[in-house]
Predict the structure.
Amino acid sequence: MIPRTLFTAEHEDFRKSFRRFVEEEIVPHHERWEDQQHVDRTIWNRAGELGFLCVNMPEEYGGSGADRLYSVVMMEELSRAGASGIGFPLHTDIVANYINNFGSDEQKKKWLPPMATGEMISAIAMTEPGTGSDLQAVKTTAVIDGDDYILNGSKTFITNGYLCDLVIVVAKTGTSGAGAKDISLLLVEANSPGFTKGKPLKKVGMKAQDTCELFFENVRVPRANLLGKEGNGFVALMKELAWERLIIAVVSISGAERALEQTLEYTRGRKVFGKPVAAYQNTRFKLAEMKAELAIGRVFVDKCLELVLQNKLGVDDAAAAKYWCSDLMGKVMDECVQLHGGNGYMLEYPIARAYVDCRAQRIYGGTNEIMKELIARTM
Ligand SMILES: Cc1cc2nc3c(=O)[nH]c(=O)nc-3n(C[C@H](O)[C@H](O)[C@H](O)COP(=O)(O)OP(=O)(O)OC[C@H]3O[C@@H](n4cnc5c(N)ncnc54)[C@H](O)[C@@H]3O)c2cc1C
């Protein structure tokens, strides 16, 4: 339908080489990773070696200084391939971004280069067993003791949690009771005494993703590991969340487009009552509706990406993209499963895996209900 105009020939060359990497080095192992509930660490090292991690970080800190569209290319390719266990986007586009945007020069020098090589895997821990949507209600505390903070609390559902070496922890450093102003971000290394991890959580989908619980018991975190200013954690989170939400929209549209391609191919090949499933008017209408809605979503997301490049993406734009595109993804996956018949329910078919993998898109990054709240606040 409407041609995309975002990417240059260089982005497309990069897409080809990343797609080859995904096809050759990720896809063949994904099922085994699903069984073990985490990817192999070596895939992180390999991605680092090939320059696929932290691409948009400055060269002096190990990145390639590339624009964010290179990250978008990678998110799209991972989503199309159904590589739901790979946590590179969270590492490159969320955690590294926080360090680059809010960290001191020492912090950037210390952590960004090993993150770019894949030697260090990173995570961000906001959600707790008792609170997710209401971030201001976190109970994890960090209390100053000499040159350290003493960190206590627990986090859950943490992407890259089981393998992580470094995690940004959202904690209360203040006691004013003012919620947002008491919140700070701390960089915590996984080998700190008192920091333990649970086993990867058993999830409905995204089974190769090492989502897990993290526990902090009197963990000494040097004050030098405070990211940004004390009490500024909530403001920092709000600044970055728009981009994080757009990532979910990007992944949603690409994954759903791939599902539509697979369904088109399947329904053309599968015959019922003597003719292909694709020949029935119901199928044709469903396929047409999905094509139209995905094209409409794609144009909106690409426009949001243009605004990201200009640093102009609004909170409401990102919230609209996240909720609408992830809802659309859910609807498309459901229709595509239906058009596959019984085979659509069998995990050996990519559509069945995509169906279970996509459900979390409407939940994480702020639930779709919270997205509507954010939009409503701007009206
Ligand atoms: C696979 C996966 C990976 C994740 N990765 C991470 C991660 O890396 N780091 C991290 O910190 N967290 C992560 N999360 C957590 C995720 O961000 C939270 O689950 C999410 O923000 C929702 O919080 P909650 O689970 O506490 O739900 P709750 O806040 O308990 O919400 C329950 C329900 O109430 C609704 N609700 C809440 N408030 C309102 C309101 N004001 N108005 C109307 N309805 C409302 C919600 O929309 C939802 O439907 C992950 C979650 C999953 C599933």
Summary: The pocket of flavin-adenine dinucleotide is lined by residues 123-127, 131-133, 157-159, 206, 211, 360, 363-364, 366-367, 369-370, 373 (CB under 6 Å). The mean pLDDT is 97. The radius of gyration is 21 Å. The first helix runs from residue 9 to 36.
